[in-house]
Structures are given as structure tokens and as C-alpha cells.
Amino acid sequence: TFLTGLPSNLLAFYTFLMKVRQKPTPVDILLLNLTVSDIFLLILLPFKIVEAASGMEWLLPAFLCPLTNYFYFNSIYLSSLFLMAISIDRYLGVAFPIKYRLRRRPGYTAATSVVFWVVVFAHCSLVYIVQYEALSPNGTTTSNSKSHCYENFSPIQLQILLPVRLEFFVVLFCLPFTITIFCYINFVHILVALPKIPAQRKQRAMGLALATLFNFIVCSAPYNLSHVVGFVQNESPSWRVYTLLLSTLNAALDPAIFYFSSTAVQRAFGNCLAGLDRRGLKGKRLSRGGALGQKEGRGHGLGTGAHKR
């Protein structure tokens, strides 16, 4: 995820930033925000890699534990909200093209993006407070074990934490997922039914819908289902940590959504791949030229030796 997601997201970030500066559109603003949330996750991912390599023991400085998890979970839920917003934009654009075009304003999208960031930051702040500063019955504070991060919880913490996680599941996963399914099913259905739409655009629509739904089902669903299981069992599931590994894949899968959503990203990726191909061919030519030069040098040396003899 880190090796493929970071360069592709940085390239997408630069592309969307240039587009927003020149002529902002609602979908470009949403994609830019989605890219920023992915970059947050990718920057903090090495800390989680160190944790996993250490057998899930937290060997890094203690202050990095809450900080890493705070932005880590922010990225997961911001991704769900912005993917939902992109699906709404696509659906309204084909279902009500004239009305939506007249009322479509970048300022509305920017305001919606700010609301998304505030809502998710507030939710994750609540979880942080519950997990690391929850009060015990005698009025003292409790915290996780120093050698583990985001794993061990006291009974008083679970009483508050498990219902909050269930609310996360309903509000920040089920609601966006349901809206996204509705929008993309109708979006694809309308485009396929229109005879004048080019086949390439229909294929892009299908790719966008499939990539988004795959992201929700594979990356987000297992982690969010652990909230429901934990609430029913009245404990934090031990296998929950493995679902977090799947959630990191969204930073590597989102560039596929960028590709199907924006022709500018398609051109940027195409130019980048073309540049890599040119460098590869140039390197091969140089290596071949060096090999030929070595052969000629050897032949010249042999010829000179024979002439001396």
C-alpha cells in the first residue's frame, strides 16, 4: 500500500491541486480532499508497519500512539464520506443534468468538505477521549498498556466505547455505503440506457462504480463489522486488528477511482508511465552501447596484439 499508494496519491494531489487553482469543479474538490485524507494515512502508515513488525507491541514514543490512531481513523471515515459525495455528484449529473448544472457550485462542495472534516474529526476525538482518558469509578483516569496501542480497554471504557463504535458503523459506514450503492446503480443504469453516450464513457462509469464498491466492501466493511460484533459480545474482538490491515488498502485503491473520475489524472498517469518507458528504453540503449564499446575495445586490443606478434 505504501509503495504504490504514496507516489500515485502525490501525483493525483498535484493534478487536482492544479485543476482546482485553474478552474475548480465540485468533483475535483471532492477528489482533492479524498487524496489529502489518503496522504494522511500513508504518512502515518510506517508507524503501523513498525507496530505490526514488533508483534503488535508499541515500541515507538508514547505520544505517537494516540496521534497515529487519531489521523489513521480519520482517514478511513473521511474516505467513506468523500466516496459517497462523489457518487452523489455523478448520479445527480446524469439523473438531473440541467437542474444540477444550474445549481452546481464549487463553494457548496467546499463547504460540504469542511463539514465532513469537522464531523469526522469530532467523532474520532470522542473515541480518543474515551479510550485514553476515560474515568474509572473512583475518579482516576485509566489508559492503555504502555506496550500496546489501541488494544486493551477497561470495563468502564468499553461501556462507553462500544456504543460509540456502533454509532460509527451506522452513521459513518452504513449510511454512506447505502447512498453510494443507490447512486451508482442508478448512475450506471441511466448511462447504459442512453444510446448517444460513447462506449468508453460507459466503461469508465462501470469502472468507477466497481472500484468504489470494492473499496467499501473489502477495505471498510470488515473493520466496521467488528464494531457490531464487539457491541453484541460486549468486548473488543481480538481479530479486529487484522481488519485494520485491509482498511489500509483504500489508499492504494483510491487512485483507481481517481483514474476513472478524471481525464486529467488519466493524462498524468499516462505521461508518467510514458516517461518511465522512455527512461527504460534509454537505459537499455546505453547499456547496449556500452557492451558494444567493450566488444570493440577487446577486438581492437586483440588486433593490436596480433600485429605486434
From TrEMBL:
Membrane topology: Multi-pass membrane protein
Highest taxon of source: Eukaryota
One Pfam family in the UniProt entry: 7tm_1
A GO cellular-component term linked to this record: plasma membrane
Annotated GO MF terms: G protein-coupled receptor activity
Localisation per UniProt entry: Cell membrane
Keywords for this protein: Cell membrane, G-protein coupled receptor, Membrane, Receptor, Transducer, Transmembrane, Transmembrane helix
Main location: membrane
Domain G-protein coupled receptors family 1 profile, first and last residues per copy: 8-258
Listed GO biological process terms: cellular response to fatty acid
Composition bias, Gly residues: 300-309
The keyword Heme is assigned to this record: no
Transmembrane segments: 29-50, 70-88, 108-130, 168-194, 206-225, 241-260
Entries under PROSITE patterns matching the protein: G_PROTEIN_RECEP_F1_1, G_PROTEIN_RECEP_F1_2
Region ranges (Disordered): 286-309
Family the UniProt entry places it in: Belongs to the G-protein coupled receptor 1 family.
Name listed for the protein in its UniProt record: G-protein coupled receptors family 1 profile domain-containing protein
Lineage summary: Eukaryota, Metazoa, Chordata, Craniata, Vertebrata
